[in-house]
Design goal:
The complex is a heterodimer of chains A (465) and B (434). Chain A is an all-alpha fold and 465 residues long. Chain A is 74% helix and 1% strand. Chain A contains 20 helices and three strands. In chain A, strands 1-2-3 form a three-stranded mixed β-sheet. In chain A, strand 2 and strand 3 form a beta hairpin. Chain B contains 18 helices and six strands. With 434 residues, chain B is mainly α. Classes of the chains: A mainly alpha (465), B mainly alpha (434). The interface between A and B is large, with 73 and 59 residues.
């Protein structure tokens, strides 16, 4: 058993939890949240470096050995810590109360617990805890949050049931029970990710819920993590058939949500459908069971997380600046007053839908190629969803930024320095990653290999040659 | 400097200019008009000199083509790799040359045309990005890389159609053009993936043997026909032909210089370039060849009809351009390669001039009118006057309705798709703030 030289994971979690308490009680909660998020980011970045140095070996936390960092989770942990810092920095004043910031830090801590889990029990604990800030109503109260809580709890119950069944196998060695457990895992993923036909709660949360915490909840991509973790353990033939079902569900979600966008006019709902559709590509890619598709999916995970956080944050800061932008009756024409926010929005959106020159292009290229290898129809259907999403992205952009500026919008500030720098970091990541994708692919290559080994793809390749 | 490095420098210069200018602006910097003007003129003069040197060196050493690579590949996963190789040969070099020259002319023209326009900086930023995308299309050594440039050209085109963002029509038309582009690009995307899937290659040297124009097709069978048909539809989308013929008139909402460079000079000819590049693949399939000729001839016929009934100069020019592009498609289908290239280049140059002069067309007309002593003879009888009156009337109505393209698309595509999208809301729970 190899250990991290310093308990980075425990320290990161401690920083987040202490930060949550400090932010909750402090008169200057943003400062407290910033300190906590920066310290946790440093911890997770160091742990990722250490994992890379150890050639992506599995390194356990020396304090709490049920936490580990490996090829699959080290990069997402550092990435999610960075997203947390970005969201806290971008949060408008009215979303940055002590309670709300504490909630965001708690949500991050729960997500990091799920990532770092060395066994299914800890993973399920983190999974349950992600719903805690919503149950405690740390982001305010509305009906959409109750719906979200219901789905989050239902998915947690499904995951707990899967673990209970797995525990039962160890005792009685019932072979078909592993398939039942995997079935429960799939249900947990479908509920959590908001896959068709259970995607409504996610769209509803986008429409009415608190956007910035939702960005963190949505971009945990815990469903993808769970499937990737399950794939690294060897799957039986029956389980692979269940995985096929998941790939179909992801594909249908991608297609239907992209199509649904055409009938919507509210920016929040359209954004929700766009993000959900593009996020479904991650699961579709992981379920392709091909090296290209899996690597593409793991990179697309980072793209969706960065780009959708940028988009969500921009929509939120515009809502705070302009009344009535949540349900505009006409185009808002905000590009005249906020050209930089318009540009950031467009770049993030185009990266999300895979414009060449951005990291999204490389990720989607790999997913499409991977899908064509094993499921030709998925490989053909996914580009259709991308095309629809691109049209919807431009529709949102047009509604928010183009057209005649309404009379009540006399003067609004463009991107403030507090907003400009985090958004610039996201844009630089998406574009620099698109120009030099090999570096980002290298971060995710080992994780992809582990999943391939779990699926037996590497042995198939060797036998094929 | 070697030819390979010169080729890479040619491609990279507009891309680097775009990225540097964007970052300066995004981080709060400001580039004044005169600096932007000098930079643009300098960049295009530099690019023209590079093209001249490449042409001279290739001619001197009797080289058929230059291949240049940036590293072994852009990225590689398992057996799939994305090579970053560019190609300059007897097909791409003239088109690259005409691209940098015409983009330079349009850039120079725009300095005065857009003087003090609030979108001055934005226009030039997009012009540099467009030049990069167009050079990528013409210099790509594979369909994968061509697709990258293809999409960059598409998005810059759409952003320039919506340039006058405070007017509702440009915004609406930009969205419609983007939707058409995306649907057409789907054919390209699927074509490229199918080429990889069935033939394990999408590079020109994998698909064809030998140097252009004497290259030979390596792909055969029904799969090759499917790939060829996909690429024909993709080319039709970019060149506003066949089922995608409706967007060109809508694209005229953009500023005149962008109409000149996109819809007169370069962008619309990218489709024809693609067909020229894959010519042996097209001619290996009767279906693909027939499709190119059919699409080209029907669009040329419709374009020439509509062109005669357009009341405004730019729309009239758009349909005239569509007609000529249709004829270029037919020439490619018939295998008249050299003729098609001459037609393509001369059409680009003429149409750029016409578009750039279109804002002063009335003044030009008055000047010619005065020079002719106040009497200009009408243009005379047209061939359609030989047709029976009833058919003439029917054609006139069709031309006035622009082939009824928009109502057909609205009724049979847009309305059912939106209705289906609305129906799918039955799977969504509705709940709001309490």
């Amino acid at each position: 058993m190899n250990f991290l030289s310093i308990p980075y994971i425990s320290l990161g979690l401690c920083f987040l939890l202490l930060g949550a308490i400090w932010a909750f009680k402090s008169a200057n909660p943003r400062f407290a949240a910033h300190c906590s998020a920066t310290a946790s980011l440093a911890s997770y970045v160091f742990s990722a470096f250490e994992v890379a140095k150890a050639e992506h070996a599995r390194l356990f936390d020396p304090w709490l050995s049920f936490f580990e960092a490996d090829a699959l989770d080290a990069v997402p942990m550092a990435f999610f810590a960075a997203l947390n810092l970005i969201v806290i920095t971008l949060a408008p004043k009215r979303d940055a109360s002590g309670k709300a910031l504490a909630g965001m830090l708690l949500l991050t801590a729960a997500t990091q617990t799920t990532y770092a889990a060395a066994n299914f029990a800890v993973l399920a604990t983190g999974w349950w805890l992600t719903s805690l800030p919503f149950v405690l109503r740390m982001f305010g109260e509305d009906r959409s949050q109750k719906l979200a809580q219901g789905f989050l709890i239902a998915s947690s119950i499904a995951l707990t049931a899967a673990i209970a069944v797995l525990h039962h196998i160890e005792i009685n060695e019932i072979s078909h029970a592993s398939s039942i457990a995997f079935g429960f895992i799939i249900i947990a993923v479908v509920l959590r990710k908001g896959l068709f036909p259970l995607h409504g709660w996610m769209i509803n949360s986008f429409e009415y819920g608190p956007l910035l915490p939702l960005a963190l909840l949505f971009n945990g991509h815990l469903g993808a993590l769970l499937i990737a973790r399950s794939e690294t353990a060897a799957l039986s033939q029956a389980e692979r058939h269940v995985l096929e079902f998941l790939s179909i569900a992801a594909l249908v979600t991608a297609l239907i949500t992209s199509l649904r966008g055409f009938a919507e006019k509210k920016p929040r709902r359209m954004l929700g459908l766009l993000c959900l559709s593009q996020a479904s590509f991650i699961l579709a890619g992981i379920a392709t069971a091909s090296a290209e598709g899996i690597t593409g999916a793991l990179v697309h995970w980072l793209v969706v997380a960065a780009a959708s956080t940028g988009l969500i944050a921009i929509v939120r800061v515009l809502e705070v600046r302009v009344s009535g932008s949540a349900d505009p009756t006409a185009h808002l024409g905000l590009a005249t007053k906020a050209p930089r926010l318009a540009t950031f929005f467009l770049v993030c959106g185009l990266a999300l839908i895979g414009l060449p020159g951005t990291l999204g292009y490389c990720a989607e290229d790999l997913i499409f190629h991977g899908a064509l290898e094993n499921h030709t129809w998925i490989g053909i259907a996914l580009p259709i969803a991308t095309a629809f999403n691109a049209i919807n992205l431009l529709r949102i952009f047009n509604i928010l930024f183009l057209g005649v500026l309404p009379k009540h919008v006399i003067d609004i500030p463009d991107a403030l320095p507090r907003e400009r720098w985090p958004l610039a970091i996201i844009v630089v990541f998406l574009i620099a990653g698109g120009i030099f994708p090999s570096k980002v692919l290298h971060w995710r290559e080992t994780a992809a290999h582990e999943i391939e080994s779990g699926l037996g793809l590497d042995t198939q390749e060797h036998s094929g040659h | 400097m070697s030819l390979e490095n010169l080729s890479l420098l040619l491609l990279a210069t507009p891309g680097i200019t775009f990225v540097v200018l964007s970052l300066i602006w995004l981080l709060g910097g400001h580039v004044p008009e005169h600096a932007m003007s000098r930079l643009t003129k300098g960049v295009y003069a530099f690019l023209t000199i590079i093209v001249g040197i490449i042409f001279w060196k290739m001619w001197q050493s009797d080289l058929q083509s230059v291949h240049a690579s940036v590293g072994a590949h852009w990225f590689k996963v398992a057996h799939y790799e994305f090579p970053l190789t560019i190609l300059l040969d007897r097909l791409s070099l003239p088109i690259v040359g005409i691209t940098v020259i015409l983009a330079g002319v349009v850039g120079s023209f725009s300095v005065r045309y857009l003087h003090r326009d609030p979108g001055f900086f934005r226009f030039f930023l997009l012009l540099h990005l467009f030049t990069f995308g167009a050079l990528l299309v013409f210099m790509a050594d594979s369909l994968d890389l061509l697709l990258g440039g293809w999409e960059i050209v598409g998005i810059t085109s759409v952003l320039l159609i919506g340039f006058f963002q405070y007017r509702p029509d440009p915004v609406k038309n930009a969205l419609r053009v983007f939707a058409t582009y995306r649907v057409a690009d789907l054919f390209m995307l699927v074509g490229v993936f199918l080429a990889h899937h069935w033939f394990k290659t999408a590079s020109w040297h994998g698909m064809f043997s030998g140097e252009w124009p004497g290259h030979v097709n390596n792909l055969n069978g029904a799969a090759a026909t499917i790939v060829a048909v996909m690429l024909v539809f993709a080319a039709s989308g970019k060149s506003a032909q066949g089922p995608f013929c409706g967007w060109l008139a809508r694209a005229m909402e953009g500023p005149t210089p962008s109409s000149a460079i996109f819809y007169g000079a370069i962008s619309v000819h990218a489709g024809a370039y693609l067909l020229l590049r894959i010519e042996p693949l097209l001619h290996s399939s009767v279906i693909a060849t027939g499709l190119v000729i059919f699409i080209g001839s029907t669009t040329a016929f419709l374009g020439t009809l509509v062109h005669r009934t357009c009341a405004d100069a730019k729309t009239s020019l758009a349909y005239a351009a569509q007609t000529q592009l249709g004829l270029i498609f037919v020439e490619i289908g018939l295998g008249w390669t050299t003729f098609a290239i001459i037609h393509l280049i001369s059409h680009s140059v003429l149409r750029t001039l016409q578009f750039l002069r279109s804002p002063s067309m009335l003044r030009d007309y008055n000047r010619v009118h005065s020079a002719a002593g106040g009497q200009i003879d009408p243009t005379g009888e047209h061939y359609e006057s030989l047709l029976p009156k009833k058919i003439q009337l029917w054609l006139y109505r069709t031309a006035l309705g622009r082939g009824f393209y928009d109502p057909i698309v609205d009724r049979f595509i847009v309305t059912p798709v939106v209705a289906l999208a609305r129906f799918l809301s039955v799977f969504e729970l509705r709940g709001g703030k309490s």
